[in-house]
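Thread: Modeling a multi-component assembly for a lab meeting

Hi all, long-time lurker, first post. My supervisor asked me to bring a structural picture of a complex we are working on to next week's group meeting, and I have zero experience with this. I have the sequence lines for every component (363 residues in total). Could someone generate the structure of the whole assembly? Inputs are pasted exactly as I received them:
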Amino acid sequence: MNENTPYQLKLFPVLTILGWILISLALIIGLVILTPTAANYFGANSKEVRDAAEAGSVLLSQLGVLASIPLWLEPLIFLGVAFFICGIALEFSIIPSLVKQRGDVMSQAFPLIVKLGK
Amino acid sequence: MQKMISKIAPTFPYVIWMGFIIVILSVIIGFVNSQTAAAYFTESKAIRETTLLAERAAIESTILWLPYFKFLGLGMVLGGIVMALKVILDNLMQAGMKVIANLPEDKRPAMPKAPWYGRLMPIVMMLGMLIFIVALIVSLQLSGTARAVYANPIPVIDAAGTGTVLLAQLQSIQATSAWLVPFKFLGIATEFLAIVMGLGTIVYVLNNQTAMLKKGVQVARSGKQQAAQPAEEADQVPATESIPT
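Re: Modeling a multi-component assembly
Sure thing. I ran the full set together rather than chain by chain. Output:
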């Protein structure tokens, strides 16, 4: 990539990588934080115990994690998807100028073809 | 492998239609489930929790597998787009080769090697599909577990103590759902990555072909100039042959 490379071609890999990072991060959070917390909260305690949890207890903090993290995790995932889509849009936006460039070269080529035909 | 993929790629409209039909089916199943839920919640809490067990099991299990079925449909639509990009790429490259074939063999420029991301694109697409299929299988398994759990009256489920099968099943549903939701989005990300790679390859091929055309024009022009000098005429390639039509 040189200085003349259009900004879209420079930017789309960055957006793609960012999208990938955000979505992978969401999966890691799901695997590392939410899964073990849900397993502990629901697997190790009956409903009676869960309902009787008092303020400041481990059970309530686990419930807080399970209730709060998905609320921001889903928008984060959609931000990742949005990065991907923006990257794709940038790639599409470069295609018209490439087709125009090709048209310019073809317009140079056709007079030569016409001369050959005479 | 690449040849096989190129043979399969033209079937992309079928893949897109299949994906679309799956999404429509999801809407219909979701609507039917909503009607079951509406009927379920018209009854009193006591009747709901002790008598309408099959309805509850149907609602809970459908909620667990339906989103993954829907995402499989979306994944097929995105996969179809990747296949369409592969068809465009193959056609672009074939057209380029046909143009180059007009040049004398010793004057043909070397065809640029396909970029790594272009070769990887179909594999990434298939990986995305695999993620959707795995997610659907896991969710179907979970929905089976949910059917087993909700075949019991709610008071029995609530009374399940530590170490009981019911609590273990409940744990399995909750813990698996925690990672399965972001996992299905990983499938979407993988399909998008394949689309990015396909478009990147199209940009690469267009750039290279334009550069080759420019070279062809230069060869043609230099050929014209040399034709004007009879002494050098003998070893010239008919330059205009290099101009792609």
